[in-house]
Every structure is written in structure tokens, then in C-alpha cells.
């Protein structure tokens, strides 16, 4: 049984369909990242998984339990850290954790031991007596995660966990997430940091216009665009016209007198030479480089747009 199962999930806000039929499955011990442009539906999806909103249609199950907002069983299964601050500003880290623990019905020695573990795991020892409001952003994030896992849930949902954090805090948080997953828990993060998502996740879901347009391991996503590398060619002549003559499926981009293509290497080279010949330009040099994750992400979005245009589906399928 997967830790998280999302089936045909929809959410409508007035006239806006934020989710248009999302399918998603995350196993125990996996870290899953939800990526997508602004307004794609990431926060809405995470809220629906966490039981923080009522979907319009579809189904979410966490370790086999149907998620319904307000159901105390669901609260015990999920730790959710929303985008904004979610702790008691005037309380110390330790006091805040104690209150959240009590709200989950944990008390006495069990709660004391749990707080001690969390404070040590999250490196909050030197800060446990400090007021949350006085902590740096990175430490606040850790305190919020501490509150989200005080009841030891099998699933942790984090919305933009590293937004605005420095590199040290990002690395610390990544380690925290990995340790959590190693214990057999499932973690879902929504982020705009594509490279980070790819480095930490076992599975990535790319959301656009309320639907998952691509999913898989980072390696599988690279394979989906049919290219691991970009071909970089310097040309003498009108680079813009050469690029315009190359099939858009190869994602031609121009930077000065350089043309960058992403697609199967032999196809790129053949198309480049043909296009240069057609417009009377000359290819001076050709090199390759590994695609950045941002380029992979952009290519996947473009690929989906092309497919939709080709089958004349309305954007997002609804
Ligand atoms: P971002 O990357 O900008 O945070 P997102 O991918 O998290 O965006 P959502 O916040 O889930 O996207 O929003 C998806 C769509 O639903 C957007 O069109 C947004 O304007 C709309 N939306 C979200 N919340 C509400 C709401 N409470 N009322 C009305 N519309 C909403």
C-alpha cells in the first residue's frame, strides 16, 4: 500500500479549477517533489493531501486512510508545514513543541522524550529556550518541522521548505528530510528550486494548469525529453534565421552567434547542418554539455505544450 495515493483530484475555487484531475502515488521511504510554474496548483495539492482543504472531486488516501478535513485520524497520520509561519511567535521552541504535542494527545514522559529527540535531530539544542519570533528564518523552519513531526506521523508535507534560506540552512534541511525518509516515512515537498528537488527526490511530479504533465525519478524525467545533453553550435551568419529553420521539437535557442539545441544528438546535428545550409550560414564549432535541471524542466513543459497543440487538446485537458 502506498503512503500517499491521489486519484483524479479536482479543486475548484469559484470559476478557477486549481486542480483538474491529479493522480499521484508516493511510497513509504520516498521523497517526492511537486514542481510547477506559479499558479500550477502545488499549494492546493499539498493542502488537499494534508486535509487542510476539501477537494471538489477525487480521492486522497494516506497509508490507506481516506483524507477528510477535520478527521482526527488523518491529523495523526500527517505532518504539514505550510508556506507561511506556523508556530506560536511568543513561545520558546520547547514550549511550542509541548503545546503541539499536547494537542495531539501526547503527554508526560513520552512527550518529554519526543521533544528531546526532535530538538537533537533538528539541531535545535542551543535554541530550545529562545522565542520562535526571535529565531532566524532557517531555525524557524526547523521549529515548524519539529511541530509537524511531534506525533511521529508516517507522512510529512512541506510547502516551499527552503524558500529564503541560506545554503547552510538548505543543506541542514535536506539532511533532515533524508533522515525522515530513511525511517520509512514519505515526504512531499513543493518547491520552485528545481535543482534542489532533483537532488533530494526519488520521484518528481511536474504540475501545470492543475494536472501532472510529467512524473518519474529525476533520471526518468531526463529520458522523457529524449536528450541528456545540449548541443551548442557557433555559427557564422544569421543565427536567428538558422534557429527559425530548425524544428521546434529540438528547442532551438539563440545566444549571440551560438545556437543551443536539446534533443537526440544525431537529430540535432542533422537539423543544424541542414538549416545552416538552407540560410547560407556556416557552422564553425559544435560542442555538447549536460542539460541543467532548469533546461530539462523547461523542455518538459514545452514538450507537453507541443503535444497538446498537436492533439488540439484544450490547455490542461479540461
Ligand atoms: P505558486 O507557485 O505561485 O505558489 P501554486 O502552484 O502553489 O502557485 P496554487 O496556490 O495552488 O498554485 O493556486 C492554483 C490556482 O488556484 C491559482 O490560479 C490560484 O490563483 C487559485 N487559487 C488558489 N487559492 C485560491 C483561493 N483561496 N481562492 C481562489 N483562487 C485560489
How would you summarize this macromolecular structure in one to three sentences?
The protein is α/β, with parallel strands linked by helices and 318 residues long.
Structural account:
With 318 residues, this protein is α/β, with parallel strands linked by helices. It is built from 11 helices and 14 strands. Helix 3 packs across helix 4 (108-121). The mean pLDDT is 91. Helix 6 (167-182) links the parallel strand 7 (155-159) and strand 8 (186-190). Helices cover 38% and strands 27% of the residues. A 6-stranded mixed sheet has the order 6-7-8-3-9-10, with helices on both faces. It has a 4-stranded antiparallel sheet with strand order 2-1-4-5. The chain has a 4-stranded antiparallel sheet with strand order 12-13-11-14, with helices on one face. The radius of gyration is 23 Å and the shape is elongated. The chain folds into 2 domains: 4-222, Rossmann fold, CATH 3.40.50.300; 223-311, Alpha-Beta Plaits (2-Layer Sandwich), CATH 3.30.70. The longest helix is centred in the C-terminal third of the chain and has 18 residues, at 293-310. Bound molecules: adenosine-5'-triphosphate. Adenosine-5'-triphosphate is lined by residues 13, 16, 18, 36, 38-44.
